Amino acid sequence: MQITELRIAGFKSFVDPQDLPVQPGLTGIVGPNGCGKSNLLEALRWAMGASSARAMRGGEMDDLIFSGSAGRPARETAEVTLILDNSNRTAPPEFNGSDTLEIVRRIRRGAGTSYKLNGRTVRGKDITLLFADASTGANSPALVRQGQISELIGSKPQNRRRILEEAAGIAGLNTRRHEAELK
Ligand code: ATP
Ligand code: MG
Q1: Residue 109: CB within 6 Å of ligand 1?
Q2: What's the domain of life for this entry (predicted)?
Q3: Is 80 helix (H, G, I), strand (E, B) or coil?
Q4: pLDDT category, 169, cuts 50, 70, 90?
């Protein structure tokens, strides 16, 4: 699976819809302080199922919606779409019917968040599992936030274990075990 496009609308500082193709190889995002570089990475993590507002640098999830600026009113919804190339069929078997996967996550002010996978409504857990089985996701150690290294150094052993488990690719199994135990 490979991310080939990120589409953002109404998310944090990205008020107007933006389609950002992701080319193979290395991509650099450059710009002055406060231009939205970290917001882009947050959009990516959010669409992959990030569930805590704190991880998104906000007090609550509604803080992800464009809150207005000089001359531009606040928005009521935010939407992030991830397009994944699955032509090598590395997505888990239940998603393997199509060459392209389209994940859409939406939030409406005061009304919470919803996900669609190829047009079908799914749970956040389904999206988390899709990425966990591919050894990636919103909490992947491959996505390093500003200040995260010092957080890691100061964190509890259980947290470090979680990070190691994600790196080892068994986070998906743990999520499935947890789900099975709840049933
Ligand atoms: P740095 O180089 O300092 O790390 P950056 O390019 O990573 O900067 P971001 O942190 O991505 O910048 O963007 C911060 C900007 O996003 C701020 O100007 C902030 O006001 C704006 N912002 C954050 N949340 C919202 C929101 N809900 N609505 C509108 N603007 C927002
Ligand atoms: Mg930043």
Answers
A1: no
A2: Bacteria
A3: strand
A4: low
